[in-house]
Amino acid sequence: MSIADRIKRVEDRIADACAKAGRDPAEITIVAVSKLKSPADIISAVEAGLQHIGENRVEEAEAKIPQVNEKTASPVTWHMVGHVQSRKARQVLPLFDVVQSVDSLRLAKRLSRFALEQGRQVDLLLEVNVSGEASKYGLAGYNWYRDSAILDQLQVAAGSIAALPNLRVNGLMTMAPFQAEQAAIRQVFSDLYGLREALAGSLKLPLPELSMGMTDDYPLAIEEGATIVRIGRAIFGDRKDSER
Ligand SMILES: *Cc1c(COP(=O)(O)O)cnc(C)c1O
Question: What is the CATH code of the structural domain delimited by 3-236?
Answer without folding.
Answer: 3.20.20.10
